[in-house]
Amino acid sequence: MSTVIKSGTIVTADMSWKADVLIEGDVIVEIGEGLKGETELDATGCYVMPGGIDPHVHLEMPFMGTYSSDDFESGTRAGLAGGTTMVVDFCLPNPDGQGLLDALQMWDNKSTRANCDYSFHMAVTWWGEQIFDEMQTVVRDRGINTFKHFMAYKGALMVQDDEMFASFQRVGELGGIAMVHAENGDVVADLSARLLAEGNNGPEGHAYSRPPQVEGEAANRAIMIADMAGVPLYIVHVSCEEAHEAIRRARQQGKRVWGEPLIQHLTLDESEYFNQDWDHAARRVMSPPFRNAKHQESLWHGLMSGSLSVVATDHCAFTTDQKRYGVGDFTKIPNGTGGLEDRMPMLWTNGVGTGRLTPEEFVALTSTNIAKILNCYPRKGTIRVGSDADIVVWDPEKEKTITASSQQSAIDYNVFEGQHVKGLPRFTLTRGKVAVHDGEIRTEEGHGKFVKRAPNTPVNKALSTWKELTAPRPVKRSGIPASGV
Ligand code: URP
Ligand code: ZN
Ligand code: ZN
Ligand code: ZN
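# zinc ion complex -> structure
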């Protein structure tokens, strides 16, 4: 079966031009003028862009005594509805001693229902010889080159600095990339206990317990530890100027560090936590919390200047009933918000629509940059002959008001409720299959395939060459004096 996308403007991270795109099976086979195929998709007035890649999602995640409510089926359906054609989830071994391979089996089982392609990051939630050994199998046999470390969630997923340093060194040795959730978990635990003792038990307590300093400190610590371990570092959900400043400084010093803001932090602010309605505020509880306008501007400037590299969602959706586990104690509100369906339209509207971003920068931030960082480029992340036909045909004139009543996500609300977006998919294709056709959802459960990602990316090679060149060496001396005994 061949499909041709006709009369659109192709947008890649490099350039835009008018051309048709011919697809056969899973891949793009030709780009040019006057192409013909068995099926035609009319892209007149549209941009033809690589489908979005969301590198940070938690589908059916076991967390805080429950499971996030979007699974690989509803989560990837939501993604496709909004123009995202690949997601990367986090495999989380139980910190009570579960092995990496055992945990991967569980993630393999859950992900068979995916509607679009997906990959995994591996989390290091405890440290020991078994983890050290299994990391090699994870990289070499399972095609996972990214290892996440939680510096927060004390008593659960959090790891200590010595564990992180050991793990980072191992990741570097294996040609992988270290990732961190950067918040100082010890300080958060202390501030939370104090707030609760003072009677601050509502959702606003969550924001008070995680000020920008806890994020800035942890981001800087992770950057320094990664530098000493000789490993590239990717910092997830960067929400504030303090963390952005640490990343900016590190990049200016030649360190290999990337920062990932979320669409939620770019467009929603901390006033949400002071809403009179407990449910409203609790539904927005996530870590790090939403910040004020100063931090939002910092994030936008980072995207515009290149000091921040990727926009993700951290999609981790809990229903209102699940959020109510934390009535009377904000530390028990499951942390997480949705966003998979809304990331692309919200970023287009608030980025391209305002002149902060060009369409090419939009493509870079939603797809190309992360495909390169994660080492699945150019199979993913661009429009070129031989690439997977993961494509969104983007209609810049199509508008809607976001509302939970028409969303694909399984939860009962949407944190972007009432936001008006202009710029939406006309068609979304996942490896050549049309999954969204002019507003109609035609996803196919199980269509998604696992994307293996090899280690030793060009950045790994450059960094290890530099570290080798500058490694400590004994000074060769002609004569050594007798010891002064
Ligand atoms: O609050 C959040 N971000 N929930 C998901 C887990 C994580 O920390 O990424
Ligand atoms: Zn996190
Ligand atoms: Zn996350
Ligand atoms: Zn299929």
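# post-check
Residues 48-463 form a domain with the TIM Barrel fold (CATH 3.20.20.140).
The chain is about 35% helix and 20% strand.
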